[in-house]
Amino acid sequence: QVQLKESGGGLVQAGGSLGLSCAASVDISRLEVMGWYRQAPGKERQLVALILGGGIIRYADSVKGRFTVSANNARNTMYLQMNNLKPEDTAVYFCYGNLLTHSRNFEYWGQGTQVTVSS
């Protein structure tokens, strides 16, 4: 069982910055994939950024150049640094992890943290 807990959400003005953290209950080097998703009211959950095997990173086009995802294996924590925030970035942000064990993939989600960007 993997537990993921986000922190760092809040209210920020457009153009501002905010950092999110995701603390994992396991050694994150065991996770096949870690990442961030977000869900705005009335919309589907969408990918923000992923850290894949080998350290490959993928970003949604809408956040490229503004958001940076990183991980600290020693702290079992993943981060999302968000700069130049826009009102359309307002959403609940979820931490995601995928663990391969006994030849099966298990997906885990955090409870989410609200990010609100005012215009």
Describe this structure in words.
The protein has no helices and eleven strands. The termini are far apart. With 119 residues, the chain is mainly β. A hairpin with a 2-residue loop joins strand 9 and strand 10 (104-109). Strands 2, 4, 5, 6, 9, 10 and 11 form a seven-stranded mixed beta sheet that branches. Strands 1-3-8-7 form a four-stranded antiparallel beta sheet, with no helix packed on it. It has strands at 4-7, 10-13, 18-24, 31-39, 46-51, 57-59, 67-72, 77-82, 91-101, 104-109, 113-118.
What is the tally of helical segments?
Answer: 0
Helix content: under 10%
Q: What is the approximate shape? A: globular
What is the number of beta strands?
A: 11
Q: Largest beta sheet, briefly?
A: 7 strands, mixed
Give the low-confidence spans: none
How are helices and strands ordered from N to C?
EEEEEEEEEEE
Spatial gap, N to C terminus = 40 Å
Radius of gyration: 14 Å
Beta content: over 45%
Structural class: mainly beta
Taking all residues together, what is the mean pLDDT? 96
Please give the structural blueprint.
Elements: E1 4-7, E2 10-13, E3 18-24, E4 31-39, E5 46-51, E6 57-59, E7 67-72, E8 77-82, E9 91-101, E10 104-109, E11 113-118
Parallel strand pairs: 2-11
Antiparallel strand pairs: 1-3, 3-8, 4-5, 4-9, 5-6, 7-8, 9-10, 9-11
